Amino acid sequence: MIRMLSILSLAILAACGGRSSRVEATAPAEVTVISSNFQDSDPTDWPGRSPDRYPVHGIDVSRFQTGIDWPTARANGVNFAFIKATEGGDRVDPMFEEHWRRAGEAGVKRGAYHFFYHCRPAAEQARWFIRHVPRELGALPPVLDMEWTPTSPTCAIRRDGATIREEARIFIDIIERHYGQRPMIYTTVDFFQDTELWRLKGVEFWLRSVADHPHGAYDGSDWSFWQYTSTGLVPGVSGPVDVNVFAGSSRAWSGWLDARAQ
C-alpha cells in the first residue's frame, strides 16, 4: 500500500559570496514522499540496518534504462533520481535529455551526475558538464562519480590519493560556482578507502554498498545517499535498476531540499 506524506517546504533563498545568486521562488513547493513499492531480483540478507528502514527511496539511471514510465515510477515510490549526464570531456549520455525532462514532468526530484575520467583534467571535465546540464530551480546538487576503471579500454590508470582528491576539489569548486550548489561525490568502498576520500572537507557523499550498511562498509563515515542494490525492480522501469535511499526521515528530506533550494 502506498503511503503518501505531504510536506510543505519553503525555499531558502540567499546569494552567497563567490556563488551564483539563487533564484527566488514565488510560492512554497509541496514535497510528497511516497513509500517505495520496489522489489529486488537478487536481494541481500542485510547483516545490520536494512534500507527498508529509510522512507525516502529513489533511483539512478543512464542510457541503459531506455524504457521508463516516469509517472508510474513516481507513483510507486521514486522520490528522486540521479541521471547520468556526462563522462570525461567528450561524452554525453544519449538518454540524459529525455530522462531529465520526463522525470521533471513527473514530479521526481532529479539531479545530474558526471562520471570522472582519470585521463582528463578536472577543469576540462567540469566545463563539459556545465555545457550540457541546465541550471534549474529545484534541481538536486550535481554529483561527481569517482571510481576505479580497470576495464576501461582507454584509461585504466590509478593515480595516487592526493592527486585524486585535488582533482575532485577542482571539479567541485568550478561546479559550485556555476550552479550555486556544492556537488556531492558518489563512490565505491574500494575507491573511498584507496584514495582516502574522507580527507575532503565539506563534501557530502553518496555511497555504494550492496552487502552491508554504509556505517559498517565505510567505517562510520557520514553519507547522504546510499546505493544499496543494482538489481532493483521498480514499477515503470524496464529491467533492473540501481536503487538508493536518503539518509534521513521524510521531514529531514524536506529540510535537506530546502537547504539546497536554488
Features:
7 helices, TIM Barrel, 24% strand, alpha/beta, globular, 262 residues, two-stranded antiparallel ribbon, 12 strands
Model description:
It contains seven helices and twelve strands. With 262 residues, it is an alpha/beta fold. The chain has a single domain (4-259), classed as TIM Barrel (Alpha-Beta Barrel), CATH 3.20.20. The chain has an eight-stranded mixed β-barrel, surrounded by four helices. The protein has a two-stranded antiparallel ribbon with strand order 1-2. Strand 8 (143-145), helix 4 (161-179) and strand 9 (184-187) form a beta-alpha-beta unit. Helix 3 (122-132) packs parallel to helix 4. The chain is globular and about 40 Å long. The chain starts with a strand and ends with a helix.
Lateral strand order in the biggest sheet: 4-5-7-8-9-10-11-12
Distance between the termini: 33 Å
Can you tell me the CATH architecture?
A: Alpha-Beta Barrel
Q: Order of helices and strands, N to C?
A: EEEEHEEHEHEHEHEHEEH
Described by the principal axes of the CA atoms, the overall outline is globular
Strand residues, percent: 15-25%
The CATH topology comes to: TIM Barrel
Radius of gyration of CA atoms, rounded to a whole number = 18 Å
Total domain count: 1
Give the oligomer, counting copies of the same chain as homo and different chains as hetero.
single chain
Q: Enumerate the spans where pLDDT stays under 50 for 5 or more consecutive residues.
A: 1-28
Q: What level of helicity do the residues show?
A: 25-40%
Counting H and I runs of at least 4 residues, what is the number of helices? Answer: 7
Instruction: Give the averaged pLDDT, no decimals.
Output: 89
- SSE class: alpha/beta
Largest sheet, in brief, is:
8 strands, mixed, barrel
